[in-house]
Design brief:
The complex is a heterodimer. Chain A is mainly beta. Chain A has no helices and 11 strands. Helix content of chain A is about 0%, strand content about 55%. In chain A, the strands form 2 sheets. In chain A, strands 2, 4, 5, 9, 10 and 11 form a 6-stranded mixed beta sheet that branches. The model of chain A has no long low-confidence stretch (mean pLDDT about 95). By secondary structure, chain B is mostly beta strands. In chain B, strands 2, 4, 5, 6, 9, 10 and 11 form a 7-stranded mixed beta sheet that branches. In chain B, strands 1-3-8-7 form a 4-stranded antiparallel beta sheet, with no helix packed on it. Chain B starts with a strand and ends with a strand. Classes of the chains: A mainly beta, B mainly beta. The interface between A and B is medium-sized, with 26 and 25 residues.
């Protein structure tokens, strides 16, 4: 069963606009969430994370929002740049097992100049 | 500082062949893991290790073996390859909850 879901396989936005990538999860034991970015022929790289005790974490152009009651998180990129074009993976870790990081299927973001 | 290095980058195997995917990290991380990435499935955990001499199964361990004789190396073995093991494999090492991934190995089993 897929405990972390990214229901949009792809997203296309114009340069300078906001990109919003969504992620839903089903396991209420998850208490730490991460976003990874992946370029073709490379491994994923860590982008930003959020603990379940927060509802927002910001790092430059990237902001992650967490809605625990809805079991939903989102990644906002403002403003979007062509170099942001990549696949974005949402990941979650349960509080009782740091070894069990679960990933979503990924969303391919294309930022058009 | 090379980070996490995986070899080979590409491999084609015949059904029933065996091979070892190599993974090495130079960051002195205790925790390492192997994932496979399949279309529409994200990354799924195969095996992980919390330190030298300690390994455990992840979400999809069947058909794979691992060992961890040193902190640096964490090889993944396919004893008898099957077409269902066609995938992209990523090795990762961890500092706290942040994973550092290798570039991946694209494996095709025919």
């Amino acid at each position: 069963d897929q405990q972390v879901k990214q229901n949009s396989p792809s997203l296309s936005v114009q340069e300078g606009r906001i990109s919003i990538l969504n992620c839903d999860y089903t396991n209420s034991m998850f208490d730490y969430f991460l976003w990874y970015k992946k370029y073709p022929a490379e491994g994923p790289t860590f982008l930003i994370s959020i603990s379940s005790i927060k509802d927002k974490n910001e790092d430059g152009r990237f902001t992650v929002f967490l809605n625990k009651s809805a079991k939903h998180l989102s990644l906002h990129i403002v403003p979007s740049q062509p170099g942001d074009s990549a696949v974005y993976f949402c990941a979650a870790i349960p509080g009782n097992n740091n070894n069990d990081m679960r990933f979503g299927a990924g969303t391919r973001l294309t930022v058009k100049p | 500082n090379a980070g996490v290095t995986q070899t080979p980058k590409f491999q084609v195997l015949k059904t029933g062949q065996s091979m070892t995917l190599q993974c090495a990290q130079d960051m002195n991380h205790e925790y390492m893991s192997w994932y496979r990435q399949d279309p529409g499935m994200g990354l799924r955990l195969i095996h992980y290790s919390v330190g030298a001499g300690i390994t455990d199964q992840g979400e999809v361990p069947n058909g794979y073996n691992v060992s961890r004789s040193t902190t640096e190396d964490f090889p993944l073995r396919l004893l008898s390859a099957a077409p269902s093991q066609t995938s992209v494999y990523f090795c990762a090492s961890y500092m706290n909850t942040e994973a550092f991934f290798g570039q991946g190995t694209r494996l095709t089993v025919v």
